[in-house]
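INFO  loader      accepted 1 record
INFO  loader      residues=487
INFO  predictor   begin
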Amino acid sequence: MALLEVKNLDKYFGGIHATDNVSFEINKNEIVGLIGPNGAGKSTIMHLLIGLYKPTDGIIKFNGEEIQHLSIHKRIKKGIAVMFQHSRPLSRQTVLENIELSLLEDKFQFFYKNDIKEQAFQIAKNLGLEFVCNKRPSELSFGIIRKMELAKAIALNPKLLLLDEPFAGLSHSEVEEFSKLIRSLTKENFSIIIVDHNVKAVKDLVDKIIAIHAGKIISTGTPEEVISNKEVKREFLGEQTKIENSNQKQTDLNAKILLEVNITSLSYNKAQALRNVDLIVKEGQFVSVVGLNGAGKTSLFKAIFSFVNYEGDIKWHGKSIKHLKTAEIVNLGISFVPETRELFKFMSTEENLNLALQKVAKNEAKKRIEEVYSIFPRLAERKKQLASTLSGGEQQMLKIARALVQKPKMIVLDEPTLGLAPIVLEDISKVLDYMHTQMNLTILLGEQNLHFALRHSEKVYLLEHGNLICDCTMEEFKERIGEKYLA
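INFO  predictor   done
INFO  writer      dumping tokens
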């Protein structure tokens, strides 16, 4: 009998089908990886298993007993524990005290049993935390805090351990160490489900992989079987089967350098997001920064627009912009299209565009809006429609149009293809071609859809765990890495 059985699991959020007839099994002492592109439904499945969400339909069996109706604490008592992606330790308590709290049978228990300290210390020792037991979280590195979070989950004495993005924010050496630690835990007689965007680390660690896309399981099997699956490769790398370059324009080698990035370090608390990233964008160039989710693309763009602090420097036309405010950077002629759909949802399409033109004369503003309507005729048809009622593709178009009406010298786009259907991707692709070849715009694109990025790019930077792995032309990228990227 399987330890966990999931049968025909459905979850709706309004009209969104987040999980669609999902069925799988987890055996005892098995490590299973759950992978998929952003928005595939991985987190929804994890939340359904732990009890944060109730399924719309379907069955979850644990040790042969249906648990889909049980509350979170009852599932924990049955033997399901989770280590969440974001660490939230009790900051005033030591490492040992954080672990001790997980060992309490009753969270309203005010007195420890005599052996709790010994149990907590033994768990800490097993995870290599014995030398930091008396330290508080503020004194620890990010990697050590992640180990402490793992220790807290293990202290719940689980039969099934859910790990949500355990490798996020870890360095290469820390990922290797954490992987060995996770592998050793199966000796403790429990099973593990890992959700992580680090496909390579998951592949090397697990016994089985379940690949999910758009709420549906598209492949299940050994790591080799799933990673080599054509549909899995397509959903991770893009919709095309071949890497083709649709961009005919080539930037002059002697073109002026517009943007120069030299970031030695960028961290969130103690999690290092970028290390020694050097990047150059020349006038009129189309440059792509590619990498899986969590590689550091968004952090790089946030640094360019002064949303986050970093060590190093960023120059525009040879002058440092590190100490400028975001509005001052935008006024230099750099527009940003963020990953999230940051629109004023209860304002119309045209009202959203007009907000970007507050300092522009009325006649000029009208002219610019008509120009973007000629590029996006669908937006012209929906100019009086509320942004919240637009489709995902139309909202993405509106974001790009809002950036274009500012007449930028360079536009930075973060994951413009995220969550879009193939037919909409083609529309976005044509727009990017037009912007680059007809409008002579300099473009810096961040993408995890490798094929989409390569078909447009003159130059490619590959980020992996915050490190720059490759800096080359599109042709060089195809020869050196290309479709072997997930292998």
